[in-house]
Design a protein that fits this description.
By secondary structure, the protein is α/β, with parallel strands linked by helices. It is built from 12 helices and 4 strands; from the N terminus they run αααβααααβααβαβαα. Helix 10 links the parallel strand 3 and strand 4.
């Protein structure tokens, strides 16, 4: 284990509750098999890939017990999403993208050394999620220059403290999101951004720029994973705007048939909603020796926000491998 990197200071904000969905567009029914998704030893097993008709809402996911909540946060792919993911991936392979590489797009919550870097260095403890070992090995396989610089550990040029979604589109005369994807030639990208927008922008501007980001990622034939943002506890105003931003994220993911990771829902029920005492960034599990360990997935560690983010990111990467038979 190592001492995790200090959080980069930034003015961020996040949601408190998901936006209400239009009547008839979501269901709060929890699939009957959710509670049974474990093998005989109690090891969690993957959620179905095509069960969107009975997929729970964000509130229903948030109400589940912890292990079930983390699995259910990987929203099932309906047939249209399956078809879209497979089509974009096939186009990317024809364009020569690397099928075992993903890029990270976002703000300081993504830039932080606590997001996936421990996984890439091999500093992890899977607990009951030992089935994720092949997914970790698969995405650690490609290195950028040296063995320790892989998809998990690479410092993204499109993830910086204080960024709003607009910053992904313009910085020093370049488009960071395009520069990152061109540099990595990644077949996949994980996007979580909006916490700074909740504090400093408007929902309308956020949606406009988010749609632009999606367009630019898909123009490069990259399979884009979208994630809801965590709670931000520093102000009621930012929290309310974050609520609306999460609604936008869900709507855009649904309209564009993109994989959705319900990170907000996964954090519900954790102490302080999985947020650090700074009221902005996810919290990190600290071992008895004082080491911050974001890639430990024991019951005790999964009471902390970054540990949950790392687990759910791996679960999403596992889902993509299943979907594409990688």
């Amino acid at each position: 284990m190592r001492i995790a990197a200090l959080f980069v200071a930034a003015s961020l904000a996040a949601c408190s509750r998901p936006a209400a969905a239009p009547a008839g567009n979501t269901t709060t029914v929890i699939p009957s098999d959710v509670a049974a998704r474990s093998d005989a030893t109690g090891t969690p097993t993957p959620t179905p890939v095509t069960d969107a008709a009975s997929a729970p809402s964000a509130d229903a996911i948030a109400a589940l017990p912890a292990a079930q909540r983390f699995e259910a946060a990987i929203v099932p792919f309906d047939d249209a999403t399956l078809a879209h993911v497979r089509a974009v991936y096939a186009e990317g392979q024809r364009a020569g993208l690397r099928n075992n590489v993903f890029s990270k797009l976002g703000d300081s919550i993504t830039e932080s050394g606590s997001f996936l870097k421990d996984v890439g260095h091999g500093w992890y403890e899977l607990g009951p999620w030992t089935r994720l070992e092949p997914t970790i090995a698969y995405f650690r396989r490609y290195s950028f220059g040296d063995a320790e610089n892989n998809s998990f550990t690479r410092s993204s040029v499109s993830a910086t403290a204080g960024w709003t979604v607009r910053a992904l589109l313009a910085a020093d005369g370049v488009v960071p999101v395009e520069r990152e994807l061109d540099a990595t030639r990644a077949a996949f990208a994980i996007l979580m951004i909006g916490t700074n927008d909740a504090e400093r922008s408007t929902v309308e501007a956020y949606e406009r720029d988010l749609r632009d980001v999606v367009d630019r990622v898909e123009a490069r034939h990259v399979v884009l994973v979208m994630s809801t943002i965590p709670d931000q506890l520093s102000s009621a105003e930012a929290g309310a705007r974050g609520l609306a931003i999460n609604g936008v994220i869900r709507r855009v993911a649904n309209e564009r048939r993109l994989p959705l990771l319900e990170f907000w829902a996964a954090l519900q029920g954790l102490p302080h909603q999985g947020i650090d005492p700074d009221n902005v960034h996810p919290s990190v599990y600290t071992t008895g020796s004082g080491n911050a360990s974001a890639a430990v997935f024991t019951d005790a560690a999964l009471r902390f926000g970054y540990n949950v983010r790392n687990l759910t990111a791996l679960l999403m990467l596992e889902r993509l491998r299943q979907t594409l038979s990688l």
